């Protein structure tokens, strides 16, 4: 699966290296906590949606679930967010959606993420559908056997079907631009 058109959105290695240097500076202990990741991502504590989003990202990368990101988890995270191929990114988004980690998505899990994206996106562009409508549409398109649950394979296949769906499912809210924009603001 190639992604020829999206190279301008990718960070180059130098920028990733820079984020690694920030990690070492910000947390000499070698374990990154949620509030530190928020600072690196430039998330203001007043922005509830962005906080929730980064929190979800944080937990999806905390592979050993000890509530901190060690250096390897952090680097894996950066590579996936900024340089991962489509398939890896979709698998990762699925993990973000799947809050209880049972390998299937129900409506509540989907709606939870959609609400967050909706609030973040709605600031810059007008979305004509409500989160509930978006969620219904996703299930209509993706839940092939109509059992009210989306499996990973339904998710992966569904995403390829149309662009609107792909953008929602791969959680493309331009995290790259966000980080680049905020990176320079660190004290
Ligand atoms: Ca960890
Ligand atoms: Ca689930
Ligand atoms: Ca299904």
From TrEMBL:
A Pfam family this chain is assigned to: EF-hand_7
PROSITE patterns, alphabetized: EF_HAND_1, EF_HAND_2
Lineage top rank: taxon: Eukaryota
The entry's keywords: Calcium, Lipoprotein, Metal-binding, Myristate, Repeat
Record GO terms (molecular function): calcium ion binding; calcium sensitive guanylate cyclase activator activity
GO CC annotation: cone photoreceptor outer segment; photoreceptor inner segment
InterPro entries named in the record: EF-hand-dom_pair, EF_Hand_1_Ca_BS, EF_hand_dom, Recoverin
Residues in EF-hand domain copies: 49-84, 85-120, 130-165
A single GO BP: visual perception
Coiled-coil ranges (or none): none
Gene3D superfamilies associated with the record: EF-hand (1.10.238.10)
Protein known as: Guanylyl cyclase-activating protein 2-like
Gene expressing this chain: LOC115041301
């Amino acid at each position: 699966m190639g992604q020829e058109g999206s190279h301008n959105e990718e960070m180059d290695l130098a920028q990733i290296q820079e984020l690694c240097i920030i990690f070492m500076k910000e947390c000499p202990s070698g374990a990154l906590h949620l509030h530190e990741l928020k600072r690196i991502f430039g998330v203001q504590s007043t922005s509830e949606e962005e906080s929730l989003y980064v929190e979800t990202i944080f937990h999806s990368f905390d592979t050993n679930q000890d509530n901190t990101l060690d250096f390897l988890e952090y680097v894996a995270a950066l590579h996936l967010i900024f340089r991962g191929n489509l398939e890896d990114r979709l698998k990762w988004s699925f993990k973000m959606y799947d809050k209880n980690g049972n390998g299937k998505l129900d409506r509540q899990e989907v709606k939870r993420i959609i609400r967050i994206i909706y609030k973040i996106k709605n600031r810059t562009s007008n979305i004509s559908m409500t989160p509930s409508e978006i969620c219904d549409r996703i299930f209509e398109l993706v839940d092939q056997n109509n059992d009210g649950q989306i499996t990973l394979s339904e998710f992966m296949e569904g995403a390829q079907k149309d662009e609107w769906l792909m953008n929602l499912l791969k959680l493309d809210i331009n995290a790259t631009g966000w980080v680049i924009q905020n990176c320079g603001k660190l004290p």
